[in-house]
């Protein structure tokens, strides 16, 4: 085999090997889907000021004493005159409330 023919054959072999390696790299090797990372849970201590608010019926309630206490609380504050994103946020909060019970 002459030197020119050997160089072409070597170049073609390297090109073929690199294409095979690239094609193989895109496949899932494990056969099972990747597991998402475990959730990291951090503890936080939050204190609310015990301010007076009005509930949905117009009755006065205390934020800390009557509403929060030692419960998990999700709050959303919107402008009732808002016509853009506020109705969407209110809908999401309603679904959260239904799911949490």
- Tell me what portion of residues adopts beta-strand conformation: 5-15%
Q: How many strand units?
A: 2
Q: Which strands sit side by side, in order, in the main sheet?
A: 1-2
Roughly what percent helix? 40-55%
Signal peptide: 1-23
GO molecular function, one term: metal ion binding
Binding site for Cu cation: 82, 86
Organism: Pseudomonas soli
Architecture overview:
The protein is mainly α and 101 residues long. It has a domain at 71-101. It has helices spanning 3-25, 63-68, 86-100; strands at 52-54, 60-62. A two-stranded antiparallel ribbon has the order 1-2. The radius of gyration is 31 Å and the shape is elongated. 0% of the residues are buried.
In short:
This protein is mainly α.
Features:
single chain, 101 residues, mainly alpha, two-stranded antiparallel ribbon, 44% helix, elongated, Thioredoxin-like_sf, signal, metal-binding, metal ion binding, SCO family protein
Topology (elements, then pairings):
Layout (H helix, E strand, L loop, with lengths): L2 H23 L26 E3 L5 E3 H6 L17 H15 L1
Antiparallel strand pairs: 1-2
């Amino acid at each position: 085999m002459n030197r020119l023919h050997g160089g072409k054959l070597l170049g073609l072999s390297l090109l073929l090997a690199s294409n095979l390696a690239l094609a193989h790299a895109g496949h899932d090797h494990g056969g099972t889907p990747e597991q998402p990372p475990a959730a990291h849970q951090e503890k936080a201590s939050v204190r609310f000021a015990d301010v007076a608010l009005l509930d949905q019926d117009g009755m006065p309630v205390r934020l800390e004493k009557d509403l929060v206490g030692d419960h998990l609380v999700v709050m959303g504050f919107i402008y009732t005159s808002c016509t853009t994103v506020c109705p969407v946020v209110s809908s999401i909060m309603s679904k959260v409330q239904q799911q949490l019970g």
